C-alpha cells in the first residue's frame, strides 16, 4: 500500500460525501473476502465506502486499500470500458453503489463533488503507477 497522506489534495477531498451517496445510491453490505467486482467485468456502478475497507488489485498486485469515505470504480463508470482491477472487501464493509445517472446527478448538482472525484482518480493513478 502507498502512503499518499502527504500528497496535497483539494479542500473538496476532505468533504465527506458518504451521506449523499447513502441517500442516492444503493447500499450493499459485504463480508470480508467478498468480491465487489473483478477485472474484466462490465461497469455498472461507482462505489463509495461507507464503512469498512476494500482492496483494489490488478493482475494480482495490490494497488490500494480504499477506506471509509473514499471512492473506487469511477474510471470504468465514466469510460464504459471493462474493469481494469478487482475490488475485494477486506473487512465487513458497507458500500454505496452509484449508477451512471446518479453519478452524473452528483457531479452536476453537488458543489465540490467533481473535485472529490478528480482527487480519487488521481490518487488511484498514482497508486497504480507506484505498483508497476
Q: What brief labels describe this structure?
A:
single chain, 132 residues, alpha+beta, Jelly Rolls, four-stranded antiparallel sheet, 4 helices, 8 strands, disordered N terminus
Query: Low-confidence stretches at least 5 residues in length (pLDDT < 50)?
Result: 1-12
The name of the CATH architecture is Sandwich
**Backbone CA Rg:** 14 Å
Question: Any idea how many domains?
Answer: 1
Number of helical stretches of at least 4 residues = 4
Total strand count, please?
Answer: 8
Shape: globular
Binned, the helix content reads: 25-40%
Summed over residues and divided by their number, the pLDDT gives a mean of: 87
Biggest sheet layout:
4 strands, antiparallel
Structural class: alpha+beta
Physical arrangement of strands within the biggest beta sheet: 1-8-3-6
- The N- and C-terminal alpha carbons lie at a distance of 12 Å
CATH superfamily: Jelly Rolls
Structure description:
This protein has about 130 residues and is an alpha+beta fold. The chain contains 4 helices and 8 strands. The protein has helices at about 20-25, 75-80, 100-110, 115-130; strands at about 25-30, 35, 45-50, 55-60, 60-65, 70, 85-90, 95-100. The strands form 2 sheets. It has a 4-stranded antiparallel sheet. Strands 2-7-4-5 form a 4-stranded antiparallel sheet. The longest helix is centred in the C-terminal third of the chain and has 19 residues, at about 115-130. The chain is globular and about 35 Å long. The relative contact order is 0.27. InterPro entries: cAMP-dep_PK_reg_su-like, cNMP-bd_dom, cNMP-bd_dom_sf, RmlC-like_jellyroll. It comes from Bosea caraganae. Pfam families: cNMP_binding.
Amino acid at each position: 500500500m502507498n502512503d499518499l497522506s502527504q500528497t496535497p489534495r483539494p479542500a473538496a477531498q476532505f468533504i465527506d460525501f458518504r451521506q449523499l451517496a447513502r441517500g442516492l445510491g444503493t447500499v450493499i453490505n459485504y463480508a470480508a473476502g467478498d468480491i465487489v467486482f473483478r477485472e474484466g467485468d462490465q461497469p455498472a456502478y461507482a462505489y463509495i465506502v461507507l464503512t469498512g475497507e476494500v482492496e483494489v488489485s490488478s493482475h494480482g498486485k495490490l494497488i490500494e486499500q480504499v477506506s471509509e469515505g473514499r471512492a473506487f470504480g469511477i474510471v470504468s463508470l465514466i469510460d464504459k470500458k471493462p474493469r481494469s482491477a478487482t475490488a475485494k472487501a477486506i473487512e465487513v464493509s458497507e458500500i454505496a453503489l452509484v449508477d451512471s445517472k446518479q453519478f452524473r446527478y452528483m457531479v452536476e448538482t453537488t458543489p465540490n463533488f467533481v473535485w472529490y472525484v478528480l482527487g480519487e482518480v488521481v490518487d488511484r493513478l498514482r497508486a497504480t503507477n507506484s505498483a508497476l
